[in-house]
Amino acid sequence: AFRAADRLGAIGVSEIVRLTQEANQLKRQGQPVIVLGLGEPDFDTPAHILEAAQQAMARGETHYTVLDGTAELKAAIQHKFKHDNGLDFALNEITAGAGAKQILYNALMASVNPGDEVILPAPYWTSYADMVLIAGGVPVVVPCTEANGFRITPEQLESAITPRTRWVFINSPSNPSGAAYSAEQLRPVLEVVERHPQVWLLADDIYEHILYDGRAFATPAAVLPSLRDRTLTVNGVSKAYAMTGWRLGYGAGPKALIAAMAVVQSQATSCPSSISQAAAVAALTGPQDVVRERCQAFQDRRDLVVAALNASPGLRCRVPEGAFYTFASCEGVLGRTTPGGMLLRTDADFCAYLLREHHVAVVPGGVLGLAPYFRISYAASTADLQEACARIQRACQALF
Ligand code: PLP
């Protein structure tokens, strides 16, 4: 029989993938399920990006490229960091891979030794913890309170740091909480990192362009330039340009780290898709108005979902600053029994109730590091969101 390697431990395919599969299974059986589980824009990739990919193919750009990004792509990324973030990077401080996910994985595999600790403010994107485990590290989960806007406090960070701490992850705007840090909110947190020279900072900026109410985006290496030499800034085209399937992400940081990450990538996937690289150049250097328009569309949907959740008995939802998720408390429905006779003990029970009795698939906070909450991805059509919200309201009303 097959025996998995020890390093996989208890890690399975992500719980979110499993829940989505269960929802899709119900759908195939003819149930009218609305799936608000996955973090994927429902928009299409803009036409000028598709065209750039077609032109690249027609030019014969269908071969292996330089390991971690073509010269054109690295120049486009360099310009992006300068123009959007005020960050200067040399080309050998920039790397591109098959999604921000591969960049994160490369970074951890290139830097984490067994027993090294990685601080994850919770709630967090589940892949962080699993990747740390695969790399042999120890995820150190710091629960962030709703009262502090799901942001880590400097005091919390200070007390989580040990001599074994290798990385602190900051993901703003956040999947799953939607929380974002302003520059003022970031600075005291970064100053804690600055005081501990063994600690590096991983800034996951993938939701940079999905930030609401006119807020200004702040990235750690720009807020505290003294940290630049131990910060890896990660970004990608998946969320901003609706390009999840193209698999193209990038990162920038100290060249020794970037070189070590290229070693990992060279033995895993070599270069990212040549066609996706050409498409990403068009995304980063082309017109950006579509990004702003879509951000406004997401903001309208956020308002719709937050209002509906707060009008549901037992639920409470703070207004997220960015990304396309709400992270609402379901504490008020715990202890209640559903009309079908199910006692709701945990957020997972509540999500199971929503799926089985009301046909809405969402993700319990417990699998994202903080209970009792649940995540809705509102990167879905307005019609689906309205119907899903009506169902959630009915589901909650039926509990009281
Ligand atoms: N980081 C966060 C916080 C995410 O939510 C995601 C995708 O869900 C990623 C990184 C990975 O994005 P990609 O690999 O598509 O660039």
UniProtKB/TrEMBL annotation:
GO terms for molecular function: pyridoxal phosphate binding; transaminase activity. InterPro entries: Aminotransferase_I/II_large, AspAT/PAT-like, NHTrfase_class1_PyrdxlP-BS, PyrdxlP-dep_Trfase, PyrdxlP-dep_Trfase_major, PyrdxlP-dep_Trfase_small. One of its GO terms (biological process) is amino acid metabolic process. It is an enzyme of class 2 (transferase). Pfam families: Aminotran_1_2. Its cofactor is pyridoxal 5'-phosphate. Its EC number is 2.6.1.-. Belongs to the class-I pyridoxal-phosphate-dependent aminotransferase family. PANTHER family: ASPARTATE AMINOTRANSFERASE. Keywords: Aminotransferase, Pyridoxal phosphate, Transferase. Residues 32-392 form the Aminotransferase class I/classII large domain. This is Aminotransferase.
